[in-house]
Amino acid sequence: MIDPVKRDLTNLFLEKREMAKEEIDPRKDWLKRILLNNNTNDLRMFLKASELKTKEGDYCMTCKSNVKQLLYLHTKKNYCHLCEEIFCAYCVKSIDFMKDEKEKYIKIRLCRNCFIYINELKYIINPNLSVDRKAIDLQNSFNDISNCYTNLCSNVPQLNGLVLLCENNKEFLDSFKSEIKQLEEKIQHDVDFLNIMKKKNNFLSDNTLILNKMGKNLLLYLKIIRNKIIPSSIEVLNKTKELLYKK
Predict the structure, then answer these.
(1) Which residues of 163-187 are buried (b: 16+ CB within 10 A; e: fewer)?
(2) If one looks up domain 4-125 in CATH, what number appears?
(3) Which residues does the UniProt record annotate as the domain FYVE-type (predicted)?
(4) pTM for the complete prediction?
(5) Which of 15, 36, 84, 245 is the most exposed place for a label (fewest CB within 10 A)?
């Protein structure tokens, strides 16, 4: 006869073990070992494994926007290589993760939370990297501005085309209203981001010659980007508001 006390203890142990297993993310542990061992072959296996396992769904885990492929929105499903959740193109970032045997970087696609986790992990494993943290931050800012500009160059003419179509053919407005609003929100978000970056004053806060030069180049790049894309972005946003919200 089975002792009920022993049975209860066994069940409790199994429950605790399952809880512990859930707390340990096997993919995070795998990627941590890759970093520790600097193993590029294992990294390629890691990336292939993530391609084989894809979740079903049509909504971005972060912004909750629909990620069905729409040609005029240039949106599609993107999977974070670490957490394997679904994200839109705006909520994932491809980074240079590790150099291979030919000194070429292997890229990995990460969501915001996993990107932060990986960077913190890199600094823990190799504290010397913290010396270059400002340079990394400047490079990330440059990439963010560049991605923002690319998005605006794509979304502004698309929204402008839809607005012109609906202005000349009012019967199309109901059909395209949701897409117009999505594009409007994305453009407004990117415009706000560029305005926030303009107000930042810490790009030139370092006396190091290289970092100071990087900061100056970033400010110049931001100025060029803003002068080139902001006027047309504001114009199409105003047209959209007039189309959607005029009485």
Answers:
(1) beebeeeeeebeebeebbebbbebb
(2) 3.30.40.10
(3) 54-119
(4) 0.50
(5) 245
